[in-house]
Amino acid sequence: MDCLFCNIIKGNIPSYKVYEDEMTYAFLDINPCSKGHTVVTLKKHYENFTDMPAEEAGALFATVKVIAKMVEEAVSADGSNIGLNNKPVAGQTIPHVHVHIIPRFKGDNGGSMHSIVADPKAADDLEEMAELLVME
Ligand code: 5GP
Ligand code: ZN
Q1: What are 62-78's pLDDT values in tens digits?
Q2: N or C: which end of the chain has fewer CB within 10 A?
Q3: Which residues surround ligand 2, an ion (CB under 5 A)?
């Protein structure tokens, strides 16, 4: 398959590998938002997060958990943003599921999840949303 991250995982394209186990592979982002910006992937190709099986999402996030702590400590970060862009409308440019670990430093002038998008009408129908989204 002609997928950039599959090729990085297979070693066909070089990367600065941070961690690897049977199911996951983590490497430095080539265009980092901050020092230590790391991307964690599942070796198996899934295009987006919402299409992957829960068990494999679990394996992906088990690695994220370990690597986030390691990265924060390694670069002496004060925290990190951990998340993924799910599908192109949300900013996903590489169609192979990956989680970003972006170290954060006091005074770095960065934002939070709330700086991604801000619909002023989003709070108008919280009750309706709760009814729509609740899982029995
Ligand atoms: P997305 O925008 O899909 O959530 O994230 C893709 C990420 O992959 C971007 O942050 C981008 O900088 C990174 N990236 C794109 N091409 C390469 C590459 O060839 N090598 C590495 N290490 N990172 C890449
Ligand atoms: Zn892939």
Answers
A1: 999 999 999 999 999 99
A2: C
A3: 3, 5-6, 45, 96
